[in-house]
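Quick start: what a row looks like.
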Amino acid sequence: QVQLVESGGGLVQPGGSLRLSCAASGLTFSTYAMTWYRQAPGKERELVATISSTGRLTNYADSVKGRFTISRDNAKNTVYLQMNSLKPEDTAVYYCNAKSRSTDYNAWGQGTQVTVSS
């Protein structure tokens, strides 16, 4: 059974930092591209950052470029999202997604709340 468990969310002041983690189990982690999405109240879910199965390739939404960094540790089956210079508009539930590089299979975590407020 595939499980993705996000952690690290919370309340932070504008300009602060958070590091999200997504621990995966039940899959061959090194064969999955990993993506962080977020969904703010009343808005559609949007892609934040993605990383290839090997970690060599990354891509970011324009709104987070230069502030967020996605990384992965295939030995720990974990993907991270380092978020710096946080803004109120970054407030959302953040989800991780795993997508197989060889099939159409993908899985979602349950999400972690990030709130940026003074």
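That is the whole record. The two ends are 40 Å apart (CA to CA). The chain is about 0% helix and 55% strand.
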